[in-house]
């Protein structure tokens, strides 16, 4: 099982930490699932599959924590709502996996899907960092891409290696191929930054 | 057109997730009801999408057909899950640890009051470009008792409006200071 996203194993986490991870992973899975279809990438589809396993593990640990945490009837009522919501979050990740299975099962992706993904409110784009890009050497934290241009880096391909959901300390490097989600405008700025045509943002 | 229906289904399912978490965090039954209304709209879109796919079935490869149906189903199911999250608000209180956890996720939902002096007052969303400049995506505005879901680009913010937005924690801090 892949645990690279998380600093702790699910069995060592408390209820709050599990909830945080479940929400983060389900959102990442949805982004990655659409990316896998958009770029017809089996590697990304495989990652969605691995994340689904992590998600199941988290959900299982959450149930145990929740059962242990309730002492009174009021506790139990409030905690049962947590379980309901967590199960819905888990459902979202299941359906994300169904999306990526289009790629995993090697179905021919109909062009209407790719067309429609071009017009959604949030878009996904792939951009390669060229040598002169100002991102080279910057960490994700320093780059402030999320809060300055509204772009979230979902995954990075470095050589043959994929880095999913890069940490804040992740440093960009020439040649990195980024998969990012954001507004059309933000993604256009990212493309300019990647090409080295823009050094301030 | 099929392209437009699929696009709208994806956008609606994502909007519903944002709204569902907002309903839960702020214990707001009105927002939860908006989610359920959107769920009905999703059902209609789902039906329309499937009818359109079937009409085109003869011109599409079986593989291609399945890929489209799978995607439609998945977006519909994601929307249902959002409906499930929202309906928790009708049942009772959720344990406070849930709301605490939702402050520590990579994307957070915030509620912001546009003050008298806010630089955002009297500006359109299009001019402000908040999603690009702060990463915060405005998905709901509450104006006195009215809820405006997914406001259009030409929507003009007023002082006293309560803006609901989703994005990175740093963006939330930025938007907070722009609203005051």
Outline the structure in words:
The complex is a heterodimer of chains A (201) and B (180). Chain A is α+β, with helices and mostly antiparallel strands and 201 residues long. Chain A has 2 domains: 95 residues, Up-down Bundle (Methane Monooxygenase Hydroxylase, Chain G, domain 1), CATH 1.20.58; 75 residues, Alpha-Beta Plaits. Helices cover 56% and strands 12% of the residues of chain A. In chain A, strands 1-4-2-3 form a 4-stranded antiparallel beta sheet, with helices on both faces. In chain A, helix 1 runs antiparallel to helix 2. The mean pLDDT of chain A is 94. Chain B folds into 2 domains: 97 residues, Phosphate transport system protein phou homolog 2, domain 2 (Methane Monooxygenase Hydroxylase, Chain G, domain 1, Up-down Bundle), CATH 1.20.58.220; 74 residues, Alpha-Beta Plaits (2-Layer Sandwich). Chain B has 180 residues and is α+β, with helices and mostly antiparallel strands. Chain B is built from 7 helices and 4 strands. Chain B has a 4-stranded antiparallel beta sheet with strand order 1-4-2-3, with helices on both faces. Chains A and B meet through helix 1, helix 3, helix 4, helix 6 and helix 7 of A and helix 1, helix 3, helix 4, helix 6 and helix 7 of B.
């Amino acid at each position: 099982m892949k645990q690279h996203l998380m600093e702790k194993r699910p069995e060592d986490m408390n209820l709050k930490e599990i909830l945080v991870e479940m929400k983060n992973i389900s959102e990442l899975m949805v982004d990655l699932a659409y990316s896998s279809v958009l770029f017809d990438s089996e590697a990304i589809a495989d990652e969605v599959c691995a994340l689904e396993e992590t998600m199941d593990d988290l959900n299982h640990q959450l149930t145990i924590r929740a059962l242990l945490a309730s002492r009174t009837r009021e506790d139990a009522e409030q905690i049962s709502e947590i379980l309901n919501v967590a199960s819905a979050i888990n459902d979202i990740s299941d359906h994300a996996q169904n999306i990526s299975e289009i790629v995993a099962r090697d179905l021919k992706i109909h062009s209407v899907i790719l067309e429609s993904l071009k017009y959604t409110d949030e878009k996904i784009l792939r951009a390669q960092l060229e040598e002169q890009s100002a991102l080279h050497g910057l960490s994700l934290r320093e780059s402030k891409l999320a809060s300055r241009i509204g772009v979230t880096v979902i995954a990075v391909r470095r050589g043959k290696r994929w880095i999913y959901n890069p940490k804040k300390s992740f440093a960009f490097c020439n040649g990195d191929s980024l998969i990012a989600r954001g507004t059309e405008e933000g993604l256009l700025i990212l493309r300019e930054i990647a090409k080295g045509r823009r050094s301030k943002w | 057109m099929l392209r437009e229906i699929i696009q709208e289904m994806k956008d609606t399912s994502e909007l519903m997730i944002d709204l569902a978490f907002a309903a839960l965090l702020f214990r707001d039954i009105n927002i939860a009801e908006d989610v359920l209304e959107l769920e009905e709209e999703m059902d209609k879109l789902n039906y329309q999408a499937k009818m359109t796919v079937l009409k085109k079935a003869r011109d599409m490869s079986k593989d291609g057909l399945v890929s489209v149906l799978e995607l439609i189903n998945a977006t519909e199911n994601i929307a249902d899950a959002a409906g499930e999250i929202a309906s928790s608000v009708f049942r009772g209180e959720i344990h406070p640890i849930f709301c605490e956890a939702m402050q520590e996720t990579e994307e957070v939902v915030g509620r912001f009051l546009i003050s008298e002096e806010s630089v955002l007052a009297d500006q359109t969303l299009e001019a402000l470009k908040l999603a690009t400049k702060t990463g915060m995506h405005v998905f709901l505005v509450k104006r006195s008792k009215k809820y405006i879901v997914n406001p259009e680009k030409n929507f003009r913010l007023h002082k006293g409006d309560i803006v609901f937005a989703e994005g990175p924690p740093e963006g939330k801090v930025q938007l907070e200071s722009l609203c005051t």
